[in-house]
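Today's session is about reading a structure prediction critically. Students often jump straight to the picture, but the first step is always the sequence itself: look for stretches that repeat, for charged clusters, for runs of hydrophobic residues. Only then move on to the predicted structure, which in these notes is written as discrete structure tokens rather than atom positions. Here is the chain we will use throughout the hour.
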Amino acid sequence: MLALFMCLFVCSPVCAQTSAKNLLKKMKNAKGVEVIFQSSYKGRVNPGKVMMQVNENNEVSIEKIVEAKPVTLEYRHDQEPMIQQPQTFDYMSYAKNETYRVALLPSGRKISSVTPFTVGKGFQKEVGEETILGLKCKIIRAIVNSNTIDISYTQDLAFRGTPQANVGVPDGLVLKVVRNGDTVQEAVSVNPLKEAGALLPSSMGESMTYDDYQWEINNANVITVNVFDQDRICFNGQKLPDGDLKAGQLYSAGGGSIILKKVKLPEWVNNRDIFCEVVQYSDGDAYDRTGSVFVIPTEKEQSFLDAMRDLNSVPFFKANDNVEYHGLVSTAAYDVPLEIMRFFTGFGVRAYNGARKVKGTQWVDSVTYKTEVTTMADKLKGEVWVGAYIGNWDAKGHKVSLKLKYYPDGGRKPHKTMPLFNTVNYLEQAGQPYPTFMLNDKLNVKFTAKEKMENVMLYYLTTGHGGWGNGDEFNQKINTIYLDGNKVVSFIPWRDDCGTYRNWNPCSGNFSNGESSSDLSRSNWCPATVTNPEYIYLGDVEPGEHTLTVQIPQGAPEGGSNSYWCLSGTLVY
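Below is the predicted structure for this chain, in token form.
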């Protein structure tokens, strides 16, 4: 056995030389060459291969070989459709020194991009030699976007080509590309082609820049629902009309501070990442305002649609201040609006960009707020009422655009949601009182678990308001959460980074000490930002009735000003 091993060890270079000689002999009259590549990462082989063909006219085609089944992203549920992936093809012409990328999108649209290249340009140095499939190769190194790329190529054959033209094109046939030492694409076979016709496609489809081409590829399966498009939110006294409401029609309500539309969202969302994207600018209002995006659950007897028509018609609780607070907590017959984004407008962005100049500061044209809302996927499918709110008293107010974007993902276990409370004073401009009850009371919400709820989280949005020196906007206050009387967590919601967003606040007041109003730290919000939710872990919740409590030491009023807290909470399980 040892003798046999020694024989194999000694003979292997000879066998390689023989193999190389046989390959060169076969290539003598070849019209082209076919190279099959296998990719791996840290030694683990990736599925599928890449086939590169080269003809004697210096044309190259590069195509993915998918094993077993097409490259698709399948939904786990039997009735949910498959997401078809774009088909991509790469080509090269050494006669023209151009690379061509061509894609057939799931919609049937064909797109392409052309990129020039220069043979031998962009490499730092030659770093070694090696033998691949019996062919002698030189190893050259390139640095691409801080990545170290080692490329092994041979000049033993009379053909040129590379599977990755974007990392450099050497004067030879590339058999191996190594990125940062651990991502490898290497030839596993090299075969002569007795016949090799034209390899470039006769039609390239719609031509565009490489960046636009790649954007189209990446977004081919993104579903975008345009809910609002530069629609106005202002103080205009509007109310939600009585009678049937039409899907797709824009409504203004709450004195004009709410816009609302019933939209058709995707039916299948388990394998989607969902993002809420808002673009806002002032069309007249100079101040920072509370903004919110919400959906209206309509499964129960009453909903926020009823509250917008008649606030006194929906359930209420009476706090220790003897005020009736309607529509702020869910009951067996009513669900609060489910808030998916809390945002705050900047001071007068766009409308007042020309009114004030601050040295070294360039005002932006609008504010974009984008946050992931996949946690709320349970309520973001099918036909849904979607609303946007900005509290303001200006006749021109603000312009708002809203998109919901659904990105393909590998799949996740879907959550269920149960909206519990929402104290954002959406109907302030229609007479709703400020939620000031925390001064002498707590927020208590009862809910019923019909079955055991596992790994329950409270999706909790909290911001403090009261815009003077002693107000809760500018003073840290502890938020404490209880479940059935047992303390779960205490924390201080706070933002110290407001100065980052000065460019979004042209009307912000500048103080004699060099600070600006928009720079000041606040109770979990800054002008021109999104407020991130807190995910508060509650554990498993047994079947039966439960009470969730929020306690905040709200500050006392001064003169005609009150502190208050905008809170929303949804159980996710």
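Discussion point for the tutorial: The mean pLDDT is 93.
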